[in-house]
């Protein structure tokens, strides 16, 4: 069974551009979580989607947005890129609410570099 | 003060040593997670705990809810255990707060 897949693996953009990152959860998983790991910083929660709806978001500006499609795959969009958006973006999925199911499965991440 | 604190930040040990990584948190949680991140960035979920103790192979995780503290132990450590170990807590709204991680290096 395929795990969580993310694309692209690497992405280079310039300041002011937009970046789109994609995530396909494990088959049957309805919850998708996005995290940012900037250099020297720990993982930070970005967004949580479940059943097609945004359920929660972290302390990030509105330039960070996303959506979840009917097949539960998800897209993270970052508009008006800034240099400090350079980071590893990780997607994780779970089969339901974390408090019920408990386990997160992570993708390999998309490394975004903003020049 | 961070809501999730891990110690030590860095740990180098010889192969075979018993390893302990500690995690303290200051918020209410529904569960605590231990994650392993390898150099390429990929993350694997090792444990989810809401009470007591769990064991998987050479890995043991414990949590003390009253003291808001968890430990991850590795017995008979091996160079392939070298990775960053991250403690994270989740609340009832599924928001996760991560510790900054412990970088473990096991020498052969």
Polypeptide structure, described:
The complex is a heterodimer of chains A (115) and B (108). Chain A is mainly beta and 115 residues long. Chain A contains one helix and eleven strands. Chain A has one helix at 98-101, and strands at 5-7, 10-13, 19-24, 31-38, 43-50, 53-57, 64-68, 74-78, 87-94, 105-106, 110-114. In chain A, the strands form two sheets. In chain A, strands 2, 4, 5, 6, 9, 10 and 11 form a seven-stranded mixed β-sheet that branches. In chain A, strands 1-3-8-7 form a four-stranded antiparallel β-sheet, with no helix packed on it. In chain A, strand 4 (31-38) and strand 5 (43-50) form a beta hairpin. The mean pLDDT of chain A is 90. Chain B has strands at 4-7, 10-14, 19-25, 31-37, 43-49, 52-56, 59-64, 69-74, 83-90, 96-98, 102-107. Chain B is built from no helices and eleven strands. With 108 residues, chain B is mainly β. In chain B, strands 2, 4, 5, 9, 10 and 11 form a six-stranded mixed β-sheet that branches. A five-stranded antiparallel β-sheet of chain B has the order 1-3-8-7-6, with no helix packed on it. Helices cover 0% and strands 59% of the residues of chain B. The interface between A and B is medium-sized, with 28 and 25 residues.
């Amino acid at each position: 069974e395929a795990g969580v897949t993310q694309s692209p693996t690497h992405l280079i953009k310039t300041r002011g551009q937009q970046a789109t990152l994609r995530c396909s959860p494990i088959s049957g998983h309805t919850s998708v979580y996005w995290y940012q790991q900037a250099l020297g910083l720990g993982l930070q929660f970005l967004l949580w989607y479940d059943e097609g709806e945004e359920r929660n978001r972290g302390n990030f500006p509105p330039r960070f947005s996303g959506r979840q499609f009917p097949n539960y795959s998800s897209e993270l969009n970052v508009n008006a890129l800034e240099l400090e958006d350079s980071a590893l973006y990780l997607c994780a999925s779970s089969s339901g609410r974390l408090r019920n199911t408990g386990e997160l499965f992570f993708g390999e991440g998309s490394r975004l570099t903003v020049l | 003060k961070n809501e999730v604190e891990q110690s030590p930040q860095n740990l180098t040990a010889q192969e075979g040593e018993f390893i302990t990584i500690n995690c303290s948190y200051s918020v209410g949680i529904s569960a605590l997670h231990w994650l392993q991140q390898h150099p390429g960035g990929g993350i694997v979920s090792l444990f989810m705990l809401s009470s007591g103790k769990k064991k998987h192979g050479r890995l043991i995780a414990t949590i003390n809810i009253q003291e808001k503290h968890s430990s991850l132990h590795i017995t008979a450590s091996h160079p392939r255990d070298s990775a960053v170990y991250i403690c994270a807590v989740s609340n009832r709204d599924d928001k996760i707060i991560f510790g900054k991680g412990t970088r473990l290096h096991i020498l052969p």
